[in-house]
Amino acid sequence: MEEDLISKKELLDLTGISYGQLYRWKRKQLIPENWFIRKSTFTGQETFFPKERMLGRIQHILSKKDDLSLDELAGKLSDMTWVQKQLLTLEEVRERNIVSSITLERYGQRDRNEHKYSFDQLLHLVAVDLLLGKGELSLEEADLLHHTLNVNRPQFQGKRWELFFARKMGVGFFLQALAPSELVFDEGVRLISRITLDDLTEQLQGKLG
Amino acid sequence: MDKDAAADLQIAGIGGAAGGAYNHVSLEGLSRINGPVTARTFTGNGRMRLGGSLTVEQMETNGDLKIGGGLRVGTMKHDGLLKVEGGLHGESFTLNGMADIKGDCELENFTAEGVVAIGGFLSAGSVELVLQGQAKVKEIGVESLVIRKGGSGAWSRLAGGMIPKLRAELQARVIEGDFLDLEYTEAEVVRGTVIIIGEGCRVGRVEYRDRLTVHPGARVGMEEKIGG
C-alpha cells in the first residue's frame, strides 16, 4: 500500500499556509527533511509530502504556535522523552479523550500497572483504537492485535517499527517489523493497514502535549 | 558553551593547528587548520584554510576563507572570498564579495553584495542580494527576496559584455516565496504571494496568489493566478 502523497501546491491551497511559513518550519526542523519528497512531473521536479502525516503535523503546529515559540515547539517535537516518561491515570486518559471509550473499556483494564498507563501502553491503545475506528478490524482481531503488541514489546523496545495488518481469504493476521521495511505478499493477500510507530507517537504526542 | 572550559586559538603570521573546540579563534595572515573547529567567536584576516567543518556562534572575517566541511554559524560577516564545501546553516549572514557554497543554505537573514553561487537549496527568512556579477542558486524558498543590480557603471557593463561571469544576473531554477521583488533574474518557475518582476528578468512561468507586477523590460512566458 503506497502512502498517499500531496504536492506542495495542493498542500498550501488546502492549509492556507504560505511558502515562507513552510520553509521557515522546515528550517526550524518542525517538518522532517525526509518528508520532502522530490519527484519528476511533467512540469519538472516537484516536491511532495506524505499527506496524512503532513496535514496532521501542520494542524499540530498551527494549533500550538500561538502558545509556544517555534523553537520551543521544535524542541518538543524532537524531544520525546518528556512525553514518554508521563504516566496517566485512567481518569486522565478518559478526560483527554486519547482513545474511544469502547477501546478503553475493553483493553484499558488489562495493562495498567499500579493504576497508571505508561506511554507504551497508551501507544498500543491508540493503535488498536485507530484500526477499530476505521472499521478495519473486528473485535476479536483487535484482541489479537493488542495481545501481539504487548507480547512483542520487549523485542521492539527503543526501535522503530511498523505494523502491517493483512487479510487472506477473510482471515486477518498481523506482522510487526522493524521500520523501514519492504514486505511482499502473495497475490491473495490484501494489505488492509500499515501503521508506523512514528505516526502513532505523533498522534499520541499531539493528544498529550 | 562554557566560556572557561575551552582555550583560545591564535595564529599570527604563518601557522597551523589541528582543530578542536575553542573559546575564541583569531587568525591573522596565512593559516591552515586541519580538523573540524568549534568556537564561540571567530575572527580572521588573510588567507584561511579549514580542512573540516566549522561551528561558531559569531564570526567576522576578511580575506580568503575556505572551509572543507559544513559551516554552522549564529551571526557571520564576511568580506572577500568564501568557499564552503558543505552546507551553510545559521541565523544571519552578511557578505561583501564572492561566496561559493556547495551544499544547502539555511539562514534567517542573508544580505549579500557581490557574487553568490549556491549548489543546493537556499532557504531563508529574508534575502537581499545586490548583484555585482553572476549569482547561481539551484532553488530558492524564502519569506522575502529582494534582488537588485549593483555596479551599473560603464566599466562593469563593459566587463560584463566580455566575461559572462561578470554580468550581473541571478540564475535559479525555481524561486518560491511570500514576497519576491526581482531584477535581472532568470528562472524557470517563480511562485509566490506578491511578486514583482522587474527589469531584465526572464521567467518561464509565474504563479502568483495575490499580486503580480511585470516591468515592460521583463520577459515572462506564462502567468497564472493560483488559489482563492
Describe this structure in words.
The complex is a heterodimer of chains A (209) and B (228). Chain A is an alpha+beta fold. Chain A folds into 2 domains: 5-79, Multidrug-efflux Transporter Regulator, Chain: A, Domain 2; 82-208, no CATH class. Chain A has 10 helices and 8 strands. Chain A has helices at 8-15, 19-27, 51-64, 70-78, 81-84, 90-95, 101-107, 119-133, 139-156, 197-208; strands at 5-7, 37-41, 44-50, 88-89, 116-117, 161-168, 171-178, 189-196. In chain A, a hairpin with a 2-residue loop joins strand 6 and strand 7 (171-178). In chain A, helix 3 (51-64) runs parallel beside helix 10 (197-208), helix 8 packs antiparallel against helix 9 and helix 8 crosses helix 10 (197-208). Chain B has 2 domains: 1-86, no CATH class; 105-228, no CATH class. Chain B has 1 helix and 12 strands. Chain B has a 12-stranded parallel sheet, with no helix packed on it. Chain B starts with 8 loop residues before the first strand and ends with a strand. Classes of the chains: A alpha+beta (209), B mainly beta (228). Chains A and B meet through helix 1 and helix 2 of A and strand 7, strand 8, strand 9 and strand 10 of B. Chain A: InterPro entries: DUF4004 (IPR025063).
Q: Which two chains share the most extensive interface?
A: A-B, 15 and 22 residues
What is the H-and-E element order of chain A?
Answer: EHHEEHHHEHHEHHEEEH
Tally of contiguous helical segments of chain A? 10
What does the average pLDDT of chain B come to? Answer: 91
Total count of helical runs of at least 4 residues of chain B: 1
Main beta-sheet annotation of chain A: 3 strands, antiparallel
Topology, pairings included?
The complex is a heterodimer of chains A (209) and B (228).
Chain A: E1 5-7, H1 8-15, H2 19-27, E2 37-41, E3 44-50, H3 51-64, H4 70-78, H5 81-84, E4 88-89, H6 90-95, H7 101-107, E5 116-117, H8 119-133, H9 139-156, E6 161-168, E7 171-178, E8 189-196, H10 197-208
Antiparallel strand pairs in A: 1-3, 2-3, 4-5, 6-7, 6-8
Helix pairs in contact in A: 3-10, 8-9, 8-10
Chain B: E1 9-17, E2 20-33, E3 37-50, E4 54-67, E5 71-84, E6 88-101, E7 105-131, E8 134-149, H1 154-162, E9 169-182, E10 185-197, E11 202-214, E12 219-225
Parallel strand pairs in B: 1-2, 2-3, 3-4, 4-5, 5-6, 6-7, 7-8, 8-9, 9-10, 10-11, 11-12
